[in-house]
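yo

u said u wanted the structure for the complex thing, so here. seqs first:
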Amino acid sequence: MTALAILIVAGPLAGPAAALAGARARGAGLAAAAGAAVSLIAAIALLAGQLHRAPLQGWNGFLYVDTLGGFFLLTVSGVTLLAAVGSIAYVSAEEDAGTFSRFQVRLYFVFFGLFASLMLASLATGNLGLIFVLIEASTLASAALVGLEGKARSLEAAWKYVIISSLGVTIALAGTLFLFYAGSALHLSSSQRLTWPFLFAHAAALAPAPLRLAFLLAVVGYGTKVGLAPMHTWLPDAHAEAPSPASAMLSAALLNTGMYAIIRFLAITQARLGPTFPRAVLLAFGFASVLIGVLFMVRRGNFKRLFAYSSVEHMGIIAVALGFGGVLGLYGALLHTINHALAKAVLFLGSGDIALRYRTREAAGVRGALTALPVTGGALLLGSMAVLGSPPFGLFLSELTIIRAGFARTSPVLPLLLLALLAVAFIAFARTTTGMVTGQPPELPDPYRRRAGRLAAAAPLIAGLAVLLLLGLWIPAGLNTVILRSVAVIT
Amino acid sequence: MEKLAATSPAGVLLDLSGVLILLLAFACLGSKLFNRYVAYYGAQSVVLSFAAAVAAWNFHSVDLWILAVLTLAVKGIGIPLVTRRLLVRRLALSRDTALSTGLSTSLIAGGALTAFAYLVTQPQLLPHGVVAAAVVPLSTAVILLGALAMVVRRHTVAQLIGWLIVENGVFLGAITLVATFPFIVEAGVFLDIAAGVLIMLVFASGLTRQLAEASAGELRELRG
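structre next:
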């Protein structure tokens, strides 16, 4: 079992190894995809083997995977696989076009692999201090990806990202310190006092005042990484300027990793202080994020920024779901996490293909994608429908669950408000994307030299949409059990 | 650390170091020269390393001794040296003009933040008489001052120093509030800071160069 966990974390390092050995974009990309596939298979094996047994623990709590951790490992390694396959197409096209030098290609795959591996490691540890260390390290690795193109705009986006996120995560470190201090009265060793299962088991003996401060600081700190408003300001710039497969990783993997850390703090706080205080905090940040995300989606312009604001909105929805709480709310939050991750991976990878062909990131410059590029245009259309929560895709089901939880657990005003905001989001988002897929396409160059490149660009789009459709029609019994057991872990 | 009384010699020394660290944060906030930013940050880190050594001596903790040495080497000497060589000198930075408020305004705001730090941390959180009750408000104030420096300054190098001051504040809180923080985690935080500074150096120098080129380009276009 420990070997499986090591395999999950080490899998994505195949890409950096190949890139450092001197492979070109295609070779390094294939190695990255193979490594990500190994991670995904190992994550599924770990979840399957773990389902009816005690959580995996070792190394004094530094290794800890329960079902909740396994669920996030599954999500992140799945996204990594999609993005790695997309990287083969995107980066080799940029290399062939001469946009990326060989050095940049090498940097890309080194930091892509490190980024994925650090995120997976942060999901596989029970030590809250180590989670901080690994999340901050993954920030640094991904900042290198954001600034990779080296232009003034991308450097500025990377700077904004690294400085705001580092400050945010430092605030989360202060929160971790106060959590550690809240456990002063416990008879535990110092590393146990930072280890989640021990803290959760002894939550009743934690000091309430420092715990309250710890939770607030953790939500603000890790919320910066999640992109909760008003700490979201780095997010649209970073997502717009990063190479598209890296944007997919940021939106579909990194944001979830931050949310995972918040969920760990939430479980401890709820066990000690009851649901009222954490609910107020999460609902406030959640609704602020949905509102800000929706308002900024109204503006037309760069389509990657549009997708980024949609991420702010969806992270807000997940925070609201956590705030509603109860089995239904938490179930909806986790289901929404995996659905949003898939939909956003598809959209950002599709946006990469479109940016390569049209050589623009402005929505106004893209016309007739459906006629010119049936696969990508279709994925863009279906992906936006999915991300907006239309049936029959998975997000419809998870948003419905969240709204039901709201009606069951709070006053009906809040879920109704959420519904109204979602309706505005639908109009704002679809207005831009329908304009992109319809109309007469201009003459488009083919950026891919080989058929394999076209295949690698299309495969993750089709695979992601297929899984999204599946999750909308039918939740497999295994996944259902995993989510229910994850909810049981934190309540 | 919870048991360390404020009146013990170690407690007094820690309290004194905390005050010095706060004063140096104010000095940085009240300055306009890049050289000074780096110098004040370096001095603050040296004081911080002294505070860690005091705590290590008091608790006979090997981990804290290592941390004190690491702080001195990395934050007290390494980072100031590297930033001065690679950023301040190479990019010929001298006077910071990208301030969004005047110095006096930011100093007044800093004073208000310090009062606020005392207001929120003093009464309910910590039992009276322990050194943490005196130092945690100071460290909170240092965190807020560093964040304020990042807000009022738009130059990347100034923002980098602001973040490092925030880190110092958190670290000061850590050694007084929870001396027994696991060493692996502390070491990891150190690694993160070192890697963070390296990557920020790359971005900051790239950005400063591009901005300089852009303004030079404007000058050429406006000629004649």
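DSSP finds seven helices and no strands in chain B. Residues 183-221 of chain B form the longest helix (39 residues).
cya
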